[in-house]
Specification:
The complex is a heterodimer of chains A (462) and B (278).
Chain A lengths: L11 H4 L12 H9 L8 H4 L7 H9 L3 H9 L5 H7 L6 H4 L2 H4 L5 H15 L14 E5 L3 H12 L3 E5 L8 H4 L8 H13 L3 E3 L10 H6 L4 E4 L4 E3 L12 E3 H9 L18 E5 L3 H12 L4 E6 L10 H9 L3 E4 L1 E8 L5 E14 L5 E5 L5 E4 L2 E4 L3 E3 L2 H5 L25 E3 L2 H4 L4 H21 L3
Parallel strand pairs in A: 1-2, 1-4, 2-3, 4-16, 6-14, 7-8, 7-14, 8-9
Antiparallel strand pairs in A: 5-15, 10-11, 11-12, 11-13
Chain B lengths: L1 E10 L2 E7 L12 E5 L6 E5 L2 E3 L4 E7 L3 H7 L6 E2 L1 E6 L10 E7 L3 H13 L3 E8 L8 H7 L2 E6 L6 E2 L2 H10 L6 E5 L2 H14 L3 E4 L15 E4 L2 E4 H4 L2 E3 L5 H7 L4 H17 L1
Classes of the chains: A alpha/beta (462), B alpha/beta (278).
Chain lengths: 462, 278
């Protein structure tokens, strides 16, 4: 059996000096070879692994036939952002994990094929706005232009609703723009997808903070019939240990936003600065931690370390991203945890007091719980620290809208099937409901909410 | 784009702008701020709203030229536009009738103390205002403040206008004269807010300060603005910007304000260098 086509990548030596995309994408020949490995199961399991039910065998078949544009459009029936999901979805846990070829050999590289056709379509054909149903003369407001918001906007526009997206930052895209680095998801692609929505008639207004600039109530007064909240989590979590406010300690959100959205890597051409020391420690083991570490490498740090309290096996980051990071020289310091930060007289962080950990019993997350080893403390020198341990719920909109009930973690209490909140006409999905998750999970939630919005606006039933 | 409807140079390195930002005034209340970004390559900086006009859809801001961004802004003219304005941000000031309120503004902080002075006066308080400036040329908002204060004291560092000395000197005098004070609001440079808070702690008078820590998104997303209040970490943008002055760790605030000192100098030197070449 033929093995999986490898992904061409920028050479390590070069890529650590630039922010260009690392994975270069399949060539046409590679894509057809890889697609040709698909055995077209009559009852495809891959589709069951996809949060938005993309018709995977069908689009792969179209690739084999050389119908790349048609393949892209087939995907777009279920996934409006294939250029992005092809790049950032954890396929190894979803569609590819189900692929029967994976039992004895390597599964079909579904994500890479998705990316190939989406890029091909963007490069070779005027990306067509899908047919839009007859106007329903009802208005839907979408708060937040991240993956959940973009999906709801696209689906509702397609169903004939007038859609307006409100974005708090000065550029649309949410986490796709401020969070995920250029080398993993080029910003031009996000811009292209947003333009695609505009072609479908979706309106977009940046610099609007719903809850402050305009309230939910005022949106209803202005004539919106339904509102979708896709705010993202948006409040960085810190460790809560001594010395965490020392200079040179960043949240991953701040570190990545300075780099990605504000382009601090181009300072002083761009006005936003960033501090990068010789030795950078990134605390956390997820994709955001990998993104931060790999960005630090590109900013010229001499030593970049990931500090993680469990072992490599428990790291939530995609294996591919961990491998990329390691290839680029990132060092994994495992089974250690910071307990205090210390600094110099000017307030700059200089060292971390660390404790060694061991794995104990399996906890709620299904992973073995890290337990500190008494007496194992040691001092770890450092110049810059990035804390990448997740997000809490952003308080602005929820404080301004007490009608929307929160769950015990402070996220929006919305039903998982429809995204309905406790406030009539208001739906929510993505990280602001589930806590930090993936782009595709947010899109899946957006898709369900769009259907529920349609049902609500048709029947008026809440 | 957000158009500059009016620009007025009101002191050396100090400009007043009236900017068309139709959505910002709608829900504005005193104490809130906007984030602005001057152009495509610009950084995002927080600026307090001095006035907002709901009917005209405009905001008034006072901006002192201290770094590249504020110099770039200062170089713009009436009719020009800036790329981004977002707000209003932060919790509004808590304005109640408490008796005698002393409002203290330092330098461009006076632009922030002004709407609050007005609001406290309108709420029925006896308002004593103290404004401190470097020298006569930097005095702003005197007439407006006089109109909304029962007493107004202007201080200049060099004595070129009003009384010679700092805002702390005047506060000390009020205290020595046995004047009743129920609440102090102090807004200005971190060092001024620190000194005032130290004094009023001794006087046992509740004091509110507005913290000007470094911000980027100013929506709680980045945490760059974090400050310590009563031993707890707070985000100035979403938990503030106003806090109990007696609980703020000013030394940490002052240190954190220096995070980008080096880059700020580099950016400004580059910018001024380019301007000279032109």
């Amino acid at each position: 059996m033929a093995s999986r086509e490898p992904m061409p990548k920028q050479k390590v030596k070069e890529r650590i000096k630039n922010f260009n995309e690392v994975a270069l994408g399949y060539t046409e020949e590679q894509a057809r070879r890889e697609a040709g490995r698909c055995i077209q199961c009559p009852e495809p399991l891959c589709v069951k692994g996809c949060p938005v039910d993309i018709n995977i065998p069908e689009f792969i078949k179209l690739i084999v036939e050389g119908k790349y544009n048609e393949a892209a459009r087939k995907i777009k029936e279920d996934d409006v952002l294939p250029c992005m999901t092809g790049r950032v979805c954890p396929q190894e846990e979803q569609c590819e994990a189900q692929c029967v070829l994976g039992v004895k050999g390597s599964p079909i590289a579904i994500g890479r094929l998705e990316r190939f056709v989406a890029d091909y379509e963007a490069a070779h054909s005027e990306s067509q706005a899908p047919p839009v149903q007859a106007k329903k003369n009802k208005k839907v407001a979408v708060v937040g232009s991240g993956p959940a918001g973009l999906t709801v906007a696209a689906d509702c526009a397609r169903m004939g609703y007038d859609v307006k997206i409100f974005e708090a930052l000065h550029k649309p895209g949410g986490v796709l723009v401020y969070g995920i680095p250029e080398f993993r998801l080029p910003k031009a692609i996000v811009g292209r997808e947003v333009d695609f929505l505009k072609k479908m008639g979706v309106e977009l207004e940046c610099n609007v903070i719903v809850g402050r600039t305009i309230t939910i109530e005022q949106l209803f007064e202005e004539g919106f019939d339904a509102i979708f909240l896709g705010l993202g989590a948006g409040l960085p979590r810190f460790l809560g240990v001594k010395g965490e406010n020392l200079l040179g300690i960043y949240s991953a959100n701040e570190f990545l936003t300075r780099i990605n959205l504000m382009k601090a890597y181009k300072f002083p051409e761009y006005d936003t600065p960033i501090n990068i020391g010789k030795k950078v420690a990134v605390v956390g083991g997820g994709n955001v931690a990998m993104d931060s570490a790999r960005s630090a490498v590109r900013l010229g740090a001499q030593g970049v370390h990931i500090i993680y309290r469990r072992s490599r096996k428990e790291m939530p980051a995609r294996n591919e991203e961990i491998e990329n990071a390691v290839e680029e020289g990132v060092i994994l310091d495992l089974l250690v945890n910071p307990i205090e930060f210390t600094g110099d007289e000017k307030g700059w962080v200089k060292a971390i007091k660390m404790i060694k950990m061991e794995l104990g019993e399996v906890d709620d997350s299904g992973r073995r719980r890290p337990v500190p080893i008494p007496g194992s403390e040691f001092i770890y020198d450092v110049d810059t620290v990035v804390i990448a341990i997740g997000q809490n719920a952003n308080p602005i909109l929820l404080d301004a809208t007490p009608e929307i009930r929160k769950n015990k973690w402070g996220y929006i209490d919305a039903d998982s099937e429809k995204g309905k909140t406790s406030m009539k006409g208001v739906f929510a999905g993505g990280d602001i409901v589930t806590g930090e998750a993936t782009v595709i999970a947010a899109m899946g939630a957006g898709r369900k909410s769009a259907r529920a919005i349609d049902e609500y606006l048709k029947t008026g039933k809440w | 784009m957000y158009k500059i409807l009016k620009k007025e140079k009101i002191g050396p390195n100090l400009n007043k702008f009236v900017i068309k930002a139709p959505l910002v005034p709608k829900n504005y209340q005193p104490g809130q701020f906007v984030v602005i970004k001057v152009d495509e390559v610009g950084e995002r900086i927080p600026i307090t709203i001095a006035e907002a006009d709901k009917d005209k859809g405009t905001i008034t801001i006072f901006v002192q030229e201290v770094g590249k961004t504020t110099y770039k802004l200062g170089a713009l003219k009436q009719g020009d536009a800036i790329s981004d304005v977002v707000g209003p941000l932060g919790h509004p000031a808590k304005v109640d009738k408490v008796g005698t309120v002393v409002t203290i503004g330092g330098g461009v902080g006076s632009a922030i103390i002004y709407p609050e002075t007005k609001a406290f006066k309108e709420a029925g308080n006896y308002v004593i205002s103290i404004m401190g400036f470097r020298n006569k040329e930097n005095v702003i908002l005197e007439e407006e403040m006089r109109k909304h204060s029962d007493e107004l004291y202007i201080m200049t560092d060099d004595g070129s206008y009003g009384k010679k000395g700092f805002t702390t000197n005047e506060l000390q005098e009020l205290e020595s004269a046995g004047r009743k004070m129920d609440l102090v609001i102090a807004i200005g440079p971190a060092i001024m807010m620190k000194k005032i808070s130290e004094m009023t702690k001794e006087y046992n008078v509740k004091t509110i300060v507005s913290l000007n820590s470094t911000m980027m998104d100013a929506t709680g997303m980045c945490g760059g603005c974090r400050v310590e209040v009563g031993g707890e970490t707070k985000f100035a943008c979403v938990d503030g910007p106003e806090f109990d002055g007696h609980k703020v760790n000013f030394d940490l605030l002052i240190k954190r304000l220096s995070i980008y000192e080096k880059q700020e100098k580099e950016a400004l030197d580059n910018y001024k260098g380019c301007k000279l070449e032109e």
